[in-house]
Amino acid sequence: MTVFSNLCLVNFLARFSYALARNPVLPLFALFLGAGPEAIGLAVGVSTVTGIFFKLPAGALSDVIGRRRTMLAGLVFFGLMPYAYLLLSSYPALIAVRFVHGLATAIYAPVAMAVVASLAGERKGELLSWFSSVAIIGTLLGAPLGGFLLHNPWTGDQPGLTLFRLVFLISGLTGTAALVLGLKSLGLEDAPGVPAGGTLAGRWQAFARGIREVAGDGRVLAASSMEAVQNLAMGALEAFLPIYAVTVASLSEFQAGLLWGVQVVTIMAAKPLMGRISDRRGRRPLIVAGMVLCAVPLAVVPHLSGFFSLLAACLAFGLGEALVTSSSAALVADVSRQRHLGSAMGVFGTIADMGHAAGPILAGLLVGALGYAAGFAILAGVLLASVPWYVCLVRRG
Fold first, then answer.
1. In CATH, what number is assigned to the domain containing residue 198?
2. What is the Cα–Cα distance from 392 to 233, expressed in whole angstroms?
3. What pTM was computed for the model?
4. Are 352 and 221 in contact (CB under 8 A)?
């Protein structure tokens, strides 16, 4: 198998494991532990906060010590942390475990993206999108399976602790498989510009220099900011669509998982094509169109109550997300120096995670204070307001 094929297989297993423990299982587990709307938003968003603190250092570190060691460190958290959920019985403990579990994607994701960008050449948009789509397949399978395992079709009762622990056990076994496969098969060479040796002081200087150069690039910051705003909406929908579907629209947990599944399958199907288009036609028009397309269904969701109407809204939101995400990371890779790709993807991931973390937390505050309709309308307004800001910024650049 090629390096890219190995990366895709490990990525699939890791993302399946992570998705199984995340949505719709995580918000429903927080609800089971007695959390209110604000606390549910924090539980969903706290693992993304981990990425805010660790993605940039992880990406920059991979530029200095090599990609393989950094990636394997992330896979350790994919493989071991899901088992910690089996010991949970309180909301504070859930927050602590979620924060540490977030190190899995915080360390692994920016480094893996840097490796793919290094391999891709002029096909960055396409290969990054394919790599992301493989991860989305894992998410696609994990989300409805988690909901299905929690749903008791014979009694219709709410899921109990035993069912939650079953889901987390399966998540742990899959994450362990990703770790074992990574240890056996990812014989990745260091990217160009990664020093093979050197003193500790020299490596520290290279680490700091990479962060300074990338973080000062306005083009990187602009593309990353648009991903962050889109992630804000996605994080809000990820946290509260299952709760809305079950408690307001009276759907089953399995149907709630299917709603999220149709969104991710839309992204999976559309991203490689959108990535190829962005390679040939440019990144910026797709980013702008995607932001607008995400805003509309986000505002409409709280006014829908049927399964199929909510399904259509999720499909539209997924298409908008595909437009944005197929272009933003590729744009960052386009403008970054090869030896600083890890740092660039770390900056991108950090800013994107700020939006993802803020989404469920902000949505929890808005839904708790104003209700679903007003809260989601405000978030949709943020997406629309970001479009003229981005257009003005890129024209100046």
1. 1.20.1250.20
2. 22
3. 0.73
4. no
The residue type at 359: G
Q: Are 367 and 37 in contact (CB under 8 A)?
A: yes
How does 296-326 read in b/e, with b if 16+ C-beta sit within 10 Å? Answer: ebbbbbbebeebeebbebbebbbbbbbbbbb
Using DSSP, how many helices (H) and how many strands (E) does the chain show? 15, 0
Domain range enclosing 304? 3-396
Residue 341 amino acid letter: L
- Compute the distance between CA of residue 120 and CA of residue 168 in angstroms, rounded to an integer: 35
Quick check: 345 and 110 in contact, CB under 8 A? yes
In eight-state DSSP terms, residue 340 is G
Domain total for the chain? 1
* Distance from C-alpha of 59 to C-alpha of 53, rounded to nearest angstrom: 11
As given in the structure block, the two tokens for residue 200 are 């500790």
What is the Cα–Cα distance from 204 to 98, expressed in whole angstroms?
30
- The pLDDT of 191-205, averaged and rounded, is 51
Among 236, 301, 303, 231, which Cα is nearest to 267's?
231
pLDDT digits (tens, 9 = 90+) for 69-117: 888 889 999 999 999 999 988 999 999 999 999 999 889 988 888 888 8
d(CA 179, CA 72): 7
